[in-house]
Amino acid sequence: MARRRTAAPACALACAALLAAAAAPAPEALADPVAATGPAPVRADAERLAGRLASEVTTAGAWRHLEAFQRAADEHGGVRAVGTEGYDASAHYVTRRLTEAGYRVRVQRFSFPDSLPVAQTARVTAPDPRDLHPLLARFSPATPDGGWRGRLAVLPGNAYGCGAADYAGDVRGHAVLARYGGCDLARKSELAAAAGAAALLVNVDQQPAEMNIRSTVRPPAVARVPTANLPRGEAERLAADAARGPVELFLDLRGRAVTTESYNLLADTPTGRADRTVVLGSHLDSATEGPGLNDNGSSAAMVLETALRLAPHRDQVRNRVRFAFWGAEEEGMIGSGHYVAQLSAQERRETALVLNFETIASPNYARMVYHGTGAVPPGTDTVEKVFTDRFARRGLPTVPLEFDGRSDFAPFMAAGIPAGGGSAGYNHLKTPEWQRLFGGTAGQLTDPCYHQTCDDLSHLDRTILGQFGDAMAWATARFAVDVSDVGAVRAR
Ligand code: PHE
Ligand code: ZN
Questions:
Q1: Residue 135: its H or E element
Q2: Which protein residue's CA is at the shortest distance from atom 7 of ligand 1?
Q3: For 445-490, what is each residue's pLDDT tens digit?
Q4: What kind and span of H or E run contains 465?
Q5: Which of 94, 147, 358, 438 has the CA that lies 20 to 30 A from 21?
Q6: Is the CATH number 3.50.30.30 carried by domain 115-259?
């Protein structure tokens, strides 16, 4: 794939200069169109604009953007991942469309330590020679020069390898095969190293059997054994062979530490109080293994469409809306993390909430709304209710989606900012209950193309995309007019 280390849309410098020139006005100086005309039933105004925007934000409108993202991938090696030209092409498109609609687009740069695969070879040399298709984990150490030869050790009972007892058998000097999930990969890596294993192979035991996913060992310093993922089909055959006798492997696994540069795109409504900023965001980068049309082109396209459709209604916006397109989410929410980290304490307090969406066009969808259990920033419950009420009013059932730390809401919530939004599912297995509620196929992933090359335009579900678009537009307009019932804002 084509990677560029310095990459930004052509307007980057000009846009940044424009922004720097426009000193931010003090919050009280900002126009509050309703305040000027005296008190008004704010909630009614909010729901009027919400209804209007929800009817204007459609699948057809977002589809043009999705076609542009597909083109960005097709013309640049099939991916839109951080640091690639496919990401830049996506960012160019978003920048152009926002600029045409009158937004000033700000390019917010960041860089971060990253890791690129150099060699990903795994081969069974005996008893039944064949090539395997490993995906090297980011930050994995390398096998010795010339590769590694040795024996496979399968953890007993299809274990996750999350406890020391899993490694009690004969693993010293061998390549261990463990099951995907159950705990952080870092934990498995530490335990495997402590038990003297020579390498860690992980069975990505998902549907379909050929699915493989690249993992990350984080923090990188913990990574002490070469680590790679294998698709279930290959891993199961390995385990079956190992049950009959020794399996001999050849591994050549090597990565390279790099510094990757990327950027977020930010665009604000020119209207609305800055001290009650509503952030609507989604990540614009794809995984390194595919074009990312569902993950997360679907959400980015709808966020863009929401921004374009809100522009003509800007005079009704009482709380500033900041549209955000995050970079490097797939590398661990790097762009959104950078954004939150660079906010001043005051800017953090003045962020009323963040709306975040992931994979909203999944073909085997579940209608999932983020739901917080335990300690979540106050106001998170309000955001959830705005979404569940909207879906309920349209007769559309929803199920709760735990804040799982797997998307760009995470840095915001860690900073005490309420969050909400939803997803139509990524690598979630559809349950029989979900099949009853939403149709589709139980026992299959909600998106069988999650982080795969097949995550393209042709596999998206237009119906669920439109339903999430409606909810996104509804909530954005509602909070753009009224955040009085959102957590900390209440006091303001
Ligand atoms: N959002 C991506 C995923 O869920 C990347 C990620 C993984 C981010 C795990 C955080 C934690 O696969
Ligand atoms: Zn995603």
A1: strand 135-136
A2: 406
A3: 999 999 999 999 999 999 999 999 999 999 999 999 999 999 866 4
A4: helix 462-481
A5: 94
A6: yes
Ligand 1 atom nearest residue 213's Cα = 12
329 labelled catalytic? yes
Give the DSSP per-residue string, 214-238.
--B-SSGGG--S-EEEEEHHHHHHH
Q: Please identify, by atom number, the ligand 1 atom nearest to the C-alpha of residue 450.
A: 12
pLDDT digits (tens, 9 = 90+) for 363-396: 999 999 999 988 999 999 999 999 999 999 999 9
CA of 367 to the centre of ligand 1 (A): 19
User: What is d(CA 234, CA 133) in angstroms, rounded to the nearest whole number?
Assistant: 8
Which residues form the pocket of ligand 1, taking CB atoms under 6 Å from any ligand atom? 329-330, 332-333, 405-407
Given CA atoms 437, 441, 444, 448 in this order, what sign does their dihedral have? negative
Taking the model in full, what pTM does it have? 0.91
Active-site annotation holder among 234, 329, 330, 384: 329
Ligand 1 centroid to Cα of residue 287, in Å, is 9
CA angle 360, 366, 368 (to 5 degrees): 70
Do domains 9-103+269-491 and 115-259 share one topology? The answer is: no
According to CATH, the topology of domain 9-103+269-491 is Aminopeptidase (3.40.630)
Domain residue spans of the chain: 9-103+269-491, 115-259
- Least distant ligand from the CA of 213: 1
